Amino acid sequence: MTLDEKYTQLQQQLSRLGSVAVAFSGGVDSTFLLKVACDTLGPDKVLALTATSPTYPAYEFEQSRKLAAQIGVKQLDFESNELVIPGFAENPPRRCYHCKHELFSLFLRQAEKLGYRNVLDGSNLDDLGDYRPGRDAVTELKICSPLLEAQLSKAEIRQLSKRLGLPTWNKQPFACLSSRFPYGTQITAERLQQIDRCESWLRQQGFGNYRVRFHEQIARVEVAAEEIGRLLDNDLRRQLVAEFKAAGFTYVTLDLQGYRTGSMNETLPEAQ
């Protein structure tokens, strides 16, 4: 299918659903899905559902509120805490399954209570190419994934987002802060705050794609390959080290492979 044909198929799918509640983080995919749902069904048939939690940076939540208002859709937010979900804080390889199952169960209850017939998530074609145990929970709970059903890739979603005038078209991929920890490393509120503080600093310095990976006393910094040179500037390097040490790290390292999604999955067996 051409890009326009995929977009038309997405609209047709949404039309058949009638009314929808979108799991909305303010990222590239969920923002695009929310916008198309609003344009297709009308704002009175669409609800944005956002869960705040220790793994969701406050900055991202504030951005989601601005985006929902810009699109013209009502947003409902409520508190969630993945750290109390059995099997989450210990950070096993299937951590995301436990989180998504709990989160989408909450979304389903909220949607049913408010009269919305379907809950949607922003999974896309690229999500099939990585280890995504959260997809198992989405499937089990019968959450609709219209972007995936329309066979839209991340690059195509960005292209369509730009066409629709969405500011998220070139936003870096978003993943909850728990993805910064190697499997088996305990996730705590304090450690999440460390990561959030350090990544906020990188954002304030103008880095576009970045992650700070937690390795106990060590912070492993990933930035886009073309931005690695910036961190070799003596002044910026000294500022970074001072900030990261103030956040609680003893050592700071730069990953020469650069930023990439799912780098923590590189330690998993090939079968997974």
Write the SSE topology.
Layout (H helix, E strand, L loop, with lengths): L2 H15 L2 E4 L4 H14 L4 E7 L5 H14 L2 E6 L15 H20 L3 E3 L13 H7 L5 H4 L4 H10 L25 H16 L5 E6 L2 E6 L10 H13 L4 E4 L18
Parallel strand pairs: 1-2, 1-4, 2-3, 6-7
Antiparallel strand pairs: 5-6
Helix pairs in contact: 1-2, 2-3, 4-5
Shape: globular
pLDDT below 50 for ≥5 consecutive residues: which ranges? none
CATH architecture of the largest domain: 3-Layer(aba) Sandwich
Distance between the termini: 30 Å
How many helices? 9
From the 3D structure, determine the CATH topology of the largest domain. Answer: Rossmann fold
Radius of gyration of CA atoms, rounded to a whole number: 19 Å
Strand content: 5-15%
Largest sheet: 4 strands, parallel
Order of helices and strands: HEHEHEHEHHHHEEHE
The CATH fourth-level homologous superfamily of the largest domain = HUPs
What order do the strands of the largest sheet run in, or round the barrel if closed?
3-2-1-4
Structural class: alpha/beta
**How helix-rich are the residues, as a percent range?**
40-55%
What is the CATH top level name of the largest domain?
Alpha Beta
Number of strands: 7
Give the number of domains.
2
* Integer average pLDDT: 93
Can you offer a commentary on this structure?
The protein has a four-stranded parallel β-sheet with strand order 3-2-1-4, sandwiched between helices. Strands 5-6-7 form a three-stranded mixed β-sheet, covered by helices on one side. The protein has two domains: 168 residues, HUPs (Rossmann fold); 91 residues. The longest helix is centred in the middle third of the chain and has 20 residues. It starts with a helix and ends in an 18-residue tail after the last strand. A hairpin with a 2-residue loop joins strand 5 and strand 6. It has 272 residues and is an alpha/beta fold. Helix 1 crosses helix 2.
